[in-house]
Description:
- GO terms for molecular function: deacetylase activity.
- The protein is an alpha/beta fold.
- The protein has a single domain, classed as Leucine Aminopeptidase, subunit E, domain 1 (3-Layer(aba) Sandwich).
- 39% of the residues lie in helices and 18% in strands.
- It has five helices and six strands.
- Strands 1-6-5-2-4-3 form a six-stranded mixed β-sheet, sandwiched between helices.
- The N and C termini lie close together (6 Å).
- The protein binds adenosine-5'-diphosphate (ADP).
Amino acid sequence: xxxxxxxxxxxxxxxxxxxxxxxxxxxxxxxxxxxxxxxxxxxxxxxxxxxxxxxxxxxxxxxxxxxxxxxxxxxxxxxxxxxxxxxxxxxxxxxxxxxxxxxxxxxxxxxxxxxxxxxxxxxxxxxxxxxxxxxxxxxxxxxxxxxxxxxxxxxxxxxxxxxxxxxxxxxxxxxx
Length: 176
Ligand code: ADP
């Protein structure tokens, strides 16, 4: 698929280390911190993050809200709430796609040139990893083909197995 090649990257590592415009947090609807990547982001950003999050009145599944990055090297954090996997017939795919779209809209609205996503919902929320990678790749590529911002989107995978699933998902798009 045209246009996504140079604008989508796959990175293996800890998302809290990325010195970019925005990182996305796979949060829960309270926005007050939790386990997994959410806990890592709150620990790395410091307690000021929770103060700002308290004022946001939570976030619905499929939606996203933006805060400052505080002690993170990233300027902003975009908190999005992925669906809990319940077998696939509860609108999970559309909600997961919405997380990616709403996060990209917020990134663009805040002049973020580079934004990184973790594999939303694939940890504690148990979304099947290959399906989640496919939705992430398709939704991001559709968005960036239509918009100039963000310029670059990074899929930040915590391990090599997840990175390989993203490589396959992005390659499948290129084949059309
Ligand atoms: P969810 O509740 O949306 O499932 P999790 O945080 O449990 O969120 O997991 C989402 C994904 O983030 C998982 O694939 C997990 O391996 C990954 N992950 C956990 N910590 C980090 C981190 N520090 N950087 C990047 N990815 C992470």
